[in-house]
Specification:
- By secondary structure, the protein is mainly alpha-helical.
- The chain has two domains: about 120 residues, RNA polymerase sigma factor, region 2, helix turn helix motif (Rna Polymerase Sigma Factor, Chain: A, Orthogonal Bundle), CATH 1.10.1740.10; about 100 residues, Winged helix-like DNA-binding domain superfamily/Winged helix DNA-binding domain (Arc Repressor Mutant, subunit A).
- Helix 1 crosses helix 3, helix 1 runs antiparallel to helix 4 and helix 8 crosses helix 10.
- The chain is elongated.
C-alpha cells in the first residue's frame, strides 16, 4: 500500500465515507464481504472501495464493543477511528493466523483498553483470578425442590409466543438496559460471544484471558440477563 493509498483510506475512515449498513429501528444489517484472502489483497493494493466495504461491515459493531470500555458514544467513535488507522498500518504485517474480523476486533480491544486504563475506568481482565471460577447459578437454587423439580415454575408469557414477545419494543429495551448494566468485562464477553457469535477460543485470544475466566464472565452475564427477563415476564 502506497502512502497515497494509505492517506485515502484514512480519509474514508475519518470522514465517515462508508457508514454502517442499518436496517429498521436502527438495527445493523450484516454486510457480506469477500473471503479474507481476496479482501486483504485488495486492501493491500489500496482498493478504497474494499476499505469502504470493510468499514460498512464492521464500524457499528466496533462502536458497540468500544462502548463496553468507554463512557460515551463520542469516545467510542474516537477509539474506532484509531482502530481503523491501526488496521491500515498493520495490513502489511497481517499474516492471516486468525480471521480478519478477529484481528480487527483485537486491535479495537487493545485501543479501547488503553483508553479506558488511561481514564482509570476499567480493571484489567487479568485481575479476575481463579477464585472466581465457580461463577453463580443462572437460576436461583431456591426455586427448585430437593428432587430437582420447580418449586416456583416460570410463568407463562401471557398469550404471546416467546418469539413475538422478544420483538416487542419494551422487552428489547429492557434487555438492552440489562446489558448496559453489566460490569465491563462481562459485557465485553457477552457482546463478543452472543452478539458477534465468536467462539470461546476467539474471545480468549482477543481479550487475552483464560478459557475458564471467559466461561465465568459469560455465565455471569447470561445469568443477569436471564434474571432480568424472568423479572420482566413475572410482571406480565
Amino acid at each position: 500500500m502506497t502512502r497515497d493509498d494509505e492517506q485515502n483510506g484514512r480519509d474514508v475512515a475519518l470522514q465517515g465515507g462508508a457508514q454502517p449498513d442499518t436496517g429498521t429501528r436502527g438495527r445493523e444489517r450484516r454486510f457480506a464481504l469477500p473471503r479474507d484472502g481476496a479482501l486483504v489483497q485488495r486492501l493491500r493494493d489500496g482498493d478504497e472501495a474494499a476499505f469502504a466495504d470493510l468499514i460498512r461491515a464492521y464500524h457499528g459493531r466496533l462502536v458497540r464493543l468500544a462502548l463496553s470500555f468507554v463512557d460515551d458514544h463520542a469516545t467510542a467513535e474516537e477509539v474506532v477511528q484509531e482502530t481503523w488507522l491501526g488496521v491500515l498500518n498493520g495490513l502489511a504485517t497481517f499474516e492471516g493466523r486468525s480471521a480478519l474480523k478477529t484481528w480487527i476486533f483485537r486491535i479495537l480491544v487493545n485501543k479501547a483498553k488503553t483508553r479506558s486504563v488511561r481514564e482509570a475506568r476499567m480493571v484489567a481482565f487479568s485481575d479476575l483470578g481463579d477464585a472466581d471460577s465457580e461463577g453463580e447459578p443462572a437460576v436461583d437454587p431456591a426455586r427448585f425442590t430437593a428432587d430437582g423439580r420447580w418449586a416456583d415454575p416460570p410463568r407463562r408469557w401471557a398469550d404471546d409466543t416467546p418469539e413475538a414477545l422478544l420483538l416487542r419494543r419494551e422487552v428489547r429495551e429492557h434487555l438492552e438496559q440489562a446489558v448496559q448494566s453489566l460490569p465491563p468485562r462481562q459485557r465485553v464477553v457477552l457482546v463478543l460471544r452472543d452478539i458477534e457469535a465468536m467462539s470461546a477460543a476467539e474471545v480468549c485470544g482477543i481479550l487475552e484471558i483464560a478459557e475458564t475466566n471467559q466461561r465465568v464472565l459469560l455465565h455471569r452475564a447470561r445469568s443477569v440477563l436471564h434474571r432480568a427477563m424472568d423479572s420482566y415476564v413475572s410482571k406480565e
